Every structure is written in structure tokens, then in C-alpha cells.
From TrEMBL:
Pfam families: WH1. This is Homer protein homolog 1. Transmembrane segments: none annotated. Belongs to the Homer family. Keywords: Acetylation, Cell projection, Coiled coil, Cytoplasm, Phosphoprotein, Synapse. PROSITE patterns: WH1. It comes from the Eukaryota. Residues 138-147, 156-171 have a biased composition (Polar residues). Its main location: other. PANTHER family: HOMER (PTHR10918). One of its GO terms (biological process) is regulation of store-operated calcium entry. The gene is HOMER1.
Length: 354
């Protein structure tokens, strides 16, 4: 998308009652994010606010708009294209002042962009286009594109409202696509980590089995040594050798016990790694489920977008048929007026003759 958010704040959104034109109707139950967007491709600024997936503000800033502070925490502006008045209630006067300053800044930027566009249109116009005059349609100007002229306000309001619906619904669609890409990247990372941990787990399991075999061998060796010590103690003629050998055996037993403790500590660490691997597996399953939910929602949004496009095409066809019928009626009316004019002339001649 060419649009990028350049300033955001939070406020309660209201719209003027279309029937009374006096009372405010809340558009959101709680404070929502209100953002300024800049479309670099069209060189326009817009104010957009979403309540869930519903766009409650979609207002294009034009040079003739004015943001008015009606109280310390409330401000409003009129949008002729949307045929409504928007109101924002802020949590503090500072937020209201900041929003008003940004409104004035982007309004001035819109005015400069309009002037530059007019200059470009004047420079690119050719003498042949000027001489064509009333026979050919005049080139599009920023006023006719953006709908800022008073004489075209009603036409632009009719044409802009059906076109705004796909744009408003396309914003959460793009936002959901960005979330989907983020979760896909997270899932790929977790898959890589899971593969590494699985390999480490298999290696650690093999090591545990080997250590258990070694431990069993050490225990058998210790028992055998104890029996050997007992046998040596029974031999009185070899008492000194037995004591020396016993000391060596005791030292060997102590070393084996220390080795056994180390192996037990390593086994505990491996158990912790196994638990961590299980937690990562659960996180991966959770992310997979979230990704599936996002994909389902994307499909729903695509269906909504397709439905809106069909509705827009149907509306355009109906407008085209209405215009054709209107042209036919105008031609018939011109014929009737011409006949009435001839009849009036004939009656006038009869009166003169009589």
C-alpha cells in the first residue's frame, strides 16, 4: 500500500446526527486509535479510525476544511464528501492541541500539493486542447479529482461513498496479512529450534542410557571390590597389603561416587532440557493454531472484499443505466418543448389573422 501512518492518538469518536444535525451520536463504545495517513501515490492526507474491522472515520483532508475546538477536550470538523461532521473527545487538552496542530499542518501540505498539481496541469496542457474549448471535455483538475469545488460536491459525495467501502475494508485485510507473515516467520524459527532440540534430545537420551549402563557397571564393580576387601581382610598373612589395597579401593569408590553424582546432575539438566523442548512444542502448536485462525480470517476478508467489489460494479451499472434513461427523457422533453413552441407560434399567427 502507498499509505503510511504518520501520526496516531486515541480518542472517543462521534458523528453528527443526520436527522437533527444537532446531537452527537457515538461511533465507538470506547476510545479508539485515530491516525493520520499519507498516500504518496495520490499525494493526499487522510484521517482513518478503525473499531475492530469497521472503519468509523475515513476522511480526506482538503484545503477548505477547518478543525474547530469546541471545548478543552473536544474538537470537530466537517467533511463535505462524507456529508457528515466528525467529533473527537480526547483524554486531555494536550492531546487535542497536538491533533489540531497536525490537522493544520497536513491541511497546509494538502493546499501546497493542490497548487503544485495545478501548476503541472497548466504546464502540460497544449494549444490544441485550449482551442478545442467547448467541443472537448476539459482535463481533470485537482478540484474535480478531490471534489473540493462547491458545484461538484453533490456528485462527488454520490461517487465517493461506494468507492470508500473497499478501501475501508482493505485496511484490516492488509493488517491481517502483515500479522500472518509475522507468525509464519516465528513458526519457521520455532521449527528450526525444535529440530535442533529434538536432535539434542535424542543424543541426550542415548547418553542417558549409556550412563545408566556405566552406573550399573560401576555398582557391580563396587560390590565386587567390597567382596574383595572382605576376602583380603580374612587373610591375616596379607593384612598390610589388604589395608593398602582397601585404601585404594575406598579412593576408587569415592571417585566412582563423585562420577555418579556428576552423571545424576547431567541427567537432571537433560530432564530440564526435555521440559523446555516440550514447552517449545506447545508454543509451536499454539502459533500454528493462531496462524490457521489468521488464514481463516483472511479468507473471510477476501470474501467480503469480493462481495463489495460485486456490489460496487452493480451500483456503477445501475448509475450508467439511470444516466442513459435520463438522456432519453431529456431528448423526449426537448422534442415536446419544440412541438409546444411551434404550437404557440401557430396560435399566435391565428390570433393575428383573426
Amino acid at each position: 500500500m502507498g499509505e503510511q501512518p504518520i501520526f496516531s492518538t486515541r480518542a472517543h469518536v462521534f458523528q453528527i446526527d443526520p436527522n437533527t444535525k444537532k446531537n452527537w451520536v457515538p461511533s465507538s463504545k470506547h476510545a479508539v486509535t485515530v491516525s493520520y495517513f499519507y498516500d504518496s501515490t495520490r499525494n493526499v492526507y487522510r484521517i482513518i479510525s478503525l473499531d475492530g474491522s469497521k472503519a468509523i472515520i475515513n476522511s480526506t483532508i482538503t484545503p477548505n476544511m477547518t478543525f474547530t475546538k469546541t471545548s478543552q477536550k473536544f474538537g470537530q470538523w466537517a467533511d463535505s464528501r462524507a456529508n457528515t461532521v466528525y467529533g473527537l473527545g480526547f483524554s486531555s487538552e494536550h492531546h487535542l492541541t497536538k491533533f489540531a496542530e497536525k490537522f493544520q499542518e497536513f491541511k497546509e501540505a494538502a493546499r501546497l500539493a493542490k497548487e503544485k498539481s495545478q501548476e503541472k496541469m497548466e504546464l502540460t496542457s497544449t494549444p490544441s486542447q485550449e482551442s478545442a474549448g467547448g467541443d472537448l471535455q476539459s482535463p481533470l483538475t485537482p478540484e474535480s479529482i478531490n471534489g473540493t469545488d462547491d458545484e461538484r460536491t453533490h456528485e462527488v459525495t454520490q461517487n465517493s461513498e461506494p468507492r470508500a467501502e473497499p478501501t475501508q475494508n482493505a485496511l484490516p485485510f492488509s493488517h491481517s496479512s502483515a500479522i500472518s507473515k509475522h507468525w509464519e516467520a516465528e513458526l519457521a524459527t520455532l521449527k528450526g529450534n525444535n529440530a535442533k532440540l529434538t536432535a539434542a534430545l535424542l543424543e541426550s537420551t542415548a547418553n542417558v542410557k549409556q550412563w545408566k549402563q556405566q552406573l550399573a557397571a560401576y555398582q557391580e564393580e563396587a560390590e565386587r571390590l567390597h567382596k574383595r576387601v572382605t576376602e583380603l581382610e580374612c587373610v591375616s598373612s596379607q593384612a598390610n597389603a589388604v589395608h593398602t589395597h582397601k585404601a585404594e579401593l575406598n579412593q576408587t569408590i569415592q571417585e566412582l561416587e563423585e562420577t555418579l553424582k556428576k552423571k545424576e546432575e547431567e541427567i537432571e539438566k537433560l530432564k530440564q532440557e526435555i521440559d523446555n523442548a516440550r514447552e517449545l512444542q506447545e508454543q509451536r502448536d499454539s502459533l500454528t493454531q493462531k496462524l490457521q485462525e489468521v488464514e481463516i480470517r483472511n479468507k473471510d476478508l477476501e470474501g467480503q472484499l469480493s462481495d463489495l467489489e460485486q456490489r460496487l460494479e452493480k451500483s456503477q451499472n445501475e448509475q450508467e443505466a439511470f444516466r442513459n434513461n435520463l438522456k432519453t427523457l431529456l431528448e423526449i422533453l426537448d422534442g415536446k418543448i419544440f412541438e409546444l413552441t411551434e404550437l404557440r407560434d401557430n396560435l399566435a399567427k391565428l390570433l393575428e389573422c383573426s
